[in-house]
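Final report, Chapter 2: Outcomes

The project's central promise was a pipeline that accepts a single protein chain and returns its three-dimensional structure in a standardized token representation, suitable for archiving and comparison. That pipeline is now operational. To close this chapter, we reproduce one record exactly as it appears in the project archive, with the input sequence first and the structure output second.
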Amino acid sequence: MGKRKITILQTAATAVAKVSFYIESQGMPSTAKKFVDEAFDFFETLADERIEHKPCTNQRWKDLNYRCVPYKEKYVIAYLSLQKEIVICDFVSAKLLK
């Protein structure tokens, strides 16, 4: 099984951090830490070169050739799939894309 390099852009990392901060502000610091750990673990699963997700349906992302994958049914991860690298570009609430 081949693995591609994972690069996470600042926009995606900041978006995960904002969700985590919100969870923590609700009095659940261990849940916030778990959310971040699980999100970044999920990012690592995208490195498998055998898996290719569908192109994004959001027109702006489609124009940028992003691929989209749902995360925990509430979020969408937009990334660029390159031959030797995955570039995680954005992490947004799925509600914002409707």
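Archive annotation: The chain has a mean pLDDT of 94.
This record, like all others produced under the grant, will remain available to the consortium after the project formally closes.
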